[in-house]
């Protein structure tokens, strides 16, 4: 990708590779399993107990001996004497005697001597007995200890990101603690004298701040710890003070605005004065060309342009990859692939990130991409319809209908 990009600008693919090359995961730590939601395992996790932990009933019914039911028919039902009651959470060491049954609820331990479960809808209940009019084979509705997994079975490999379902699986297998990489702490600095919080009365030349809500909302969707989100004036001293504080308390710093070549674009100069090593500045992408990336003692600084669409690209493509690396996620971007339903806007010099809608290809029934209008870097109104950010390479005919392009989900 990017074979036709502008000379002197770093290709997008090389920027993504740079994050993997210069960043290392945050130190892993041992913690309770429930505290690790959204985190990536630093070590494999194995089952502490068998699942199921014991032989148990899969239904509400009656524990019985299959041999006692071998001759049961509708015309000649078998009568079994009730000798006990086993609710979930309790057990009995009393062996089931021949000709007897015990009431048992779903998940309760099967008593010694029983080898099958008779569903309650299959019996006629009497005061102290049940009548069964069918043969019930051994192991019917009976879960055996360890049939799902046994102690020591690997449940999750290192590099697995823990969602709610995985947490539940680990907890059920007796895993109380895991070793995982923490989520990165993020500080957001929104620069620009012209941007004001929504709801304020604007003076001539001022605009409402979209970048603050965009970055905060994006981080919240990921469950990312936010140290703070601060508005910073376009003054050298203010940028310096805010960035110095952020470097002391954050793993990742995201700035919006102030990274181009304007008279008040101070972020690159301040960053380098504060000892941040620059790894690249300016990418062969549109929007988001003047993206700045550097590090200081493990803290990553990503300077995004001020236009909201460029911020969206920076978050979805670049910040997401930085966070994956710092959080120990070995997987790269979760690309999707789909065919363009119509021509996209061509560009011979820079790769494009275009907001598109996912829909069904009327010819094949497969997922396809429909480009949206209003793609300029200062526009965001099409986010009401956009599902994905599509990567359309510069040059060639990658922008034409029927081309297959990569995309990243926006929702």
From TrEMBL:
Catalytic activities: adenylyl-molybdopterin + molybdate = Mo-molybdopterin + AMP + H(+)
Cell cycle among keywords: no
InterPro entries per record: MoaB/Mog-like_dom_sf (IPR036425), MoaB/Mog_dom (IPR001453), MoeA-like (IPR038987), MoeA_C_domain_IV (IPR005111), MoeA_C_domain_IV_sf (IPR036688), MoeA_linker/N (IPR005110), MoeA_linker/N_sf (IPR036135)
One of the Pfam families matching this protein, by short name: MoeA_C
Annotated metabolic or biological route of this protein: Cofactor biosynthesis; molybdopterin biosynthesis
UniProt-listed SUPFAM superfamilies: MoeA C-terminal domain-like (SSF63867), MoeA N-terminal region -like (SSF63882), Molybdenum cofactor biosynthesis proteins (SSF53218)
Cofactor(s) needed for function: Mg(2+)
Cross-referenced CDD domains: MoeA
Domain MoaB/Mog: 187-325
UniProt EC number: 2.10.1.1
Keywords tagged on the record: Magnesium, Metal-binding, Molybdenum, Molybdenum cofactor biosynthesis, Transferase
Family named by the database record: Belongs to the MoeA family.
Task performed by this protein: Catalyzes the insertion of molybdate into adenylated molybdopterin with the concomitant release of AMP.
Protein's recorded name: Molybdopterin molybdenumtransferase
Organism: Alcanivorax xiamenensis
């Amino acid at each position: 990708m990017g074979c036709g990009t502008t000379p002197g600008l770093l290709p997008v693919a090389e920027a993504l590779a740079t994050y993997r090359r210069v960043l290392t995961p945050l130190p892993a730590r041992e913690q309770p399993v429930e505290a690790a939601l959204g985190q990536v395992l630093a070590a494999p996790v194995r089952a502490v107990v068998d699942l199921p932990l014991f032989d148990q009933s899969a239904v509400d019914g009656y524990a019985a001996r299959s041999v006692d039911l071998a001759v049961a028919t509708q015309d000649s039902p078998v009568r079994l004497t009730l000798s006990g009651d086993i609710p979930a959470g309790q057990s009995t060491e009393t062996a089931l005697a021949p000709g007897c049954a015990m009431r048992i609820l779903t998940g309760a331990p099967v008593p010694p001597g029983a080898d099958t479960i008779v569903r309650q809808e299959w019996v006629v209940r009497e005061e102290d007995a049940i009548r069964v009019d069918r043969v019930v084979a051994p192991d019917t509705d009976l879960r055996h200890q360890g049939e799902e997994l046994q102690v020591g079975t690997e449940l999750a490999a290192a590099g697995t990101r823990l969602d709610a379902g995985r947490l539940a699986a680990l907890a059920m297998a007796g895993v109380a603690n895991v070793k995982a990489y923490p989520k990165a702490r993020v500080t957001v600095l929104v620069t620009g004298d012209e941007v004001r919080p929504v709801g304020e009365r604007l003076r001539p030349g001022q605009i409402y701040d979209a970048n603050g809500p965009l970055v905060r909302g994006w981080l919240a969707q990921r469950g990312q710890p936010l140290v703070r989100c601060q508005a910073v004036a376009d003054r050298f001293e203010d940028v310096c003070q805010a960035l110095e504080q952020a470097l002391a308390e954050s793993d990742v710093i995201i700035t919006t605005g102030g990274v181009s070549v304007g008279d008040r674009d101070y972020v690159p100069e301040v960053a380098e004065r504060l000892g941040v090593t620059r790894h690249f500045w300016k990418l062969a992408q549109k929007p988001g060309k003047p993206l700045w990336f550097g590090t200081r003692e493990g803290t990553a600084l990503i300077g995004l342009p001020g236009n909201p669409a460029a911020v969206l690209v920076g978050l979805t493509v670049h910040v997401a990859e930085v966070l994956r690396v710092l959080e120990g996620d070995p997987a790269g971007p979760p690309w999707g692939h789909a065919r363009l339903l119509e021509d996209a806007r061509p560009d011979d010099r820079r790769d494009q990130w275009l907001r598109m809608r996912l829909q069904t290809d009327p010819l094949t029934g497969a997922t396809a991409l429909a480009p949206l209008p209003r793609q300029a870097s200062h526009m965001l109104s099409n986010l009401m319809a956009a599902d994905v950010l599509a990567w359309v390479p510069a040059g060639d005919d990658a922008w034409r209908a029927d081309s297959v392009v990569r995309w990243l989900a926006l929702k």
